[in-house]
Amino acid sequence: MRTVRVLLAEAHAVVREGTRQIIDADPAIDVIGEAEDGAAVVALASRLRPDVVLLDLHMPRINGIEATRHIVAETPEARILILSAYDEEDYVSAALDAGASGYLLKSAHGSEVVAAIHAVAEGQLVMDARLGRRALGRRGDPAADAPTARELDVLRLAARGLRTRDIAAELGTSPRTVEAHFTSIFNRFGVTTRTEAVLHAAARHWIRPEGETRGP
């Protein structure tokens, strides 16, 4: 397993120190910097070019949502993993819409945080299953909007972070066909983004957030 370079951003020193101790215990993770406010983490991300930014939402100067937007725009190769005390749907949706690759609560076990860091570094989407279900809700019959086998293939690859052209290459089809599958999925699920589609499928256990498929 390759070493993942992590930038840790947390406003509270005691929480930051505790989080660092947890992730420092993994020899495959290298904490390359720390920040205690949103402006500092944006600047450090641009300078240090981390693989993963472990970011709290409640940050001075620039909040975590705005910091995520800045980092995604200025350092697009960095993946953002939110570690937050907020479990409200609005915060989760805002973080994902801003470009975060994962969202965990601070009640998560240390092993979950470490696993999530490695997962987002590999381009996977990470979401606590309870948050995914809460954010998406439960609408009607869980099987009523079940995707086709091909749509499951598309969703599995999307959950791994693959772009349209890469999904097309994996499936031996054209990017236009992949886009058509996404259009069908969006209409079927009643969503508007790929992240929402992946979370919708994961909440119903058709796929796992890290990309492993299960039957509808």
Overview features:
alpha/beta, Rossmann fold, Arc Repressor Mutant, subunit A, six-stranded parallel beta sheet, 10 helices, elongated, disordered C terminus
Short description:
This protein is α/β, with parallel strands linked by helices and 216 residues long.
Give an account of the 3D structure.
With 216 residues, the chain is α/β, with parallel strands linked by helices. The protein folds into 2 domains: 4-135, 3-Layer(aba) Sandwich (Rossmann fold), CATH 3.40.50.2300; 138-216, Arc Repressor Mutant, subunit A. The protein is 50% helix and 13% strand. The protein has 10 helices and 6 strands. It has a 6-stranded parallel sheet with strand order 2-1-3-4-5-6, with helices on both faces. α2 runs parallel beside α3 and α7 (149-159) crosses α10. The two termini are 32 Å apart. The model is unreliable at 135-142 and 211-216 (pLDDT under 50).
